[in-house]
Amino acid sequence: MTDRFAPPPATGCRNTPVLKERGQHEVFCGLTGIVWLHRKMQDAFFLVVGSRTCAHLLQSAAGVMIFAEPRFATAILEETDLAGLADAQEELDRVVHELLARRPDIRQLFLVGSCPSEVIKLDLAKAAERLSAAHAPRVRVLNYSGSGIETTFTQGEDACLAAMVPVLPKTEARELLLVGALPDVVEEQALSLLDAIGVGPVRVLPAQTKDSEYGIGPNTVFALTQPFLGDTHAELTRRGARHIPAPMPFGEEGTTRFLEAIAAEFGIGPEVVARVTESPRARAREAVRKVAEPLWGKRVFFFPDSQLEIPLARFLARECGMEPVEVGTPFLHREIMGPELDLLPEGPRLSEGQDVDKQLARVREDRPDLTVCGLGLANPLEAEGLATKWAIELVFTPVHFYEQAADLASLFARPLRRSRALAFEEADT
User: Which residues hold [4Fe-4S] cluster (predicted)?
Assistant: First the structure.
């Protein structure tokens, strides 16, 4: 384990050549982001304009019980819509008017594009503008694409947050914006730490309700809590806000460096951060030490999937003693990932994009101890004797900041413990 107070490595991976992969994709639908976003934004509703397959995906992924009234639904595109025999815009207006009449609690309505709506070139931006004017000021209607066509499933959140930024009011106030949907308990920890350090006022995107929103302006600084928010980063920058480069708050080290970067922006020294975080840092280090034993000295291979890959590889290498063999990511945003690349020890291949056949060939040649990949690749690789970790679980599980550091390490340790147990059972028989 790298000591937290040791200086960064003299040479990280910022200048490592990146292998550009452009081939067959194995991606999970961007509509999946609705599963966590609809829980986060309490007055929002997500209306997917898509097919019955879209509806089945969301129902299955969210696990909504039949007696619950969720805050998402699918406006089904029928055969007449797809064939251009019906006025899809007129039908969409009807569905939205009926929905808003039945659900007066909705203050924000997102029209979410899907593969079918994009294939027939349905203009949801035009629809959102028209419907927002019709239902203002009670309801704000926005649109974004959650299509699974050559996107990753985390891009759904990025597209949603990016759609919200242009409509936020302008402000001259000096404020910190934390960007990225976090579970409530994790968000509360982050806000409590920042308050204790003396940083404020702090806003969050997405806010829980439309009424609790804020402005954006030239005195706004923002820190990303998720590495996949490239479009949101661009929209905030366009509004005049300034990004605070920092590692993602994964593990004890990442969280401390994240807080130090924010504190420095507000003129607060690292000694204040060290004093405030002494206890949670110690708890995180000890908790990770207890669960990371199966990871020490093991080799890990990341398929491109969620855009969490580089921060996770840094955490596993520096705090859990693993050796990253290849770190693949769907998109490598240099400005966002720069602090992570500086900390990631030299050695692994870096790849951007996807070419499944080539990556499968490399993982079979490397034979890593653990492979992090999508659900579609996990079972075939397990059948070949490779231990795997589902990448999607790393998005659905609370893994940010100090109190979740051990949970993050456990997600990787569990499949190795399982493999070891199975090997013992086979040896006994």
Answer: 29, 54, 115
